[in-house]
Write a structure and sequence with these properties.
Structural class: alpha+beta
Helix content: 25-40%
Number of domains: 2
Order of helices and strands: HEEHEEH
Shape: extended
Length: 97
């Protein structure tokens, strides 16, 4: 990532989160990014609660982009209800991973 940052290929990436609090920045990442410790991010989140919106079955879950094999490419909206129905179908089917 540092090499990509130096060449300008990651202009929007500004922050790195180190998962290990014992990590030392021997790679020089601090010269190119703002470094955050994961434990500090978790502590900040614990102190700054966010109220999440109410989710219903009709709330958009994700967009699934099609290739356009039968027409123009487009994004199909997958709702929370649609995702849950797929997961329930897998759970109660004979499908084996």
């Amino acid at each position: 990532m540092i090499d990509l940052k130096k060449t300008g290929d990651l202009p929007h990436l500004k922050n790195l989160i180190y998962m290990d609090n014992n990590s030392e920045d021997s790679s020089g990442a601090a010269d190119h990014f703002t470094i955050h410790m994961f434990s500090d991010v978790v502590a900040y989140g614990a102190e700054h609660n966010v109220d999440f919106p109410v989710v219903t079955a009709d709330t958009a879950y994700t967009l699934c982009y099609t290739s356009g094999t039968t027409g123009d490419p487009k994004g199909a909206i997958i709702t929370h209800g649609g995702m849950l129905s797929c997961l329930a179908a897998l759970k109660y089917s004979d499908f084996k991973w």
